[in-house]
Amino acid sequence: MPTILIDGETYEVAEGRNVLQAALDHKLNLPYFCWHPAMGSVGACRLCAVKHYRGEQD
């Protein structure tokens, strides 16, 4: 199962879930504006920001 690291905490993520869905699954308070479960991601508001690391050396 994939994992994500948010604010120093590691969370397991169900396969196929995006970062916002995973955060909401774990009851994390992340601001979002242009995403809705029935519509998917519009990506137009630029409110979400994610820093993606490939490994521990990044």
Architecture overview:
This protein has 58 residues and is an alpha+beta fold. The chain has one helix spanning 19-25, and strands spanning 3-6, 9-12, 35-36, 40-41. The protein has a domain at 3-41. A two-stranded antiparallel sheet has the order 1-2. The chain has a two-stranded antiparallel ribbon with strand order 3-4. The model has no long low-confidence stretch (mean pLDDT 82).
Condensed summary:
This protein is 12% helix and 21% strand. By secondary structure, the chain is of the alpha+beta class.
Gyration radius over CA = 12 Å
Q: How many angstroms separate the termini?
A: 22 Å
Number of alpha- plus pi-helical segments: 1
Low-pLDDT windows of residues: none
Secondary-structure element pattern, one letter each? EEHEE
Shape: globular
Structural class: alpha+beta
Beta fraction of the residues? 15-25%
Largest sheet: 2 strands, antiparallel
The oligomeric status of these chains comes to: single chain
> How many beta strands in the DSSP annotation?
4
**Helical content band:** 10-25%
Give the overall average pLDDT: 82
Spatial strand order of the main sheet: 1-2
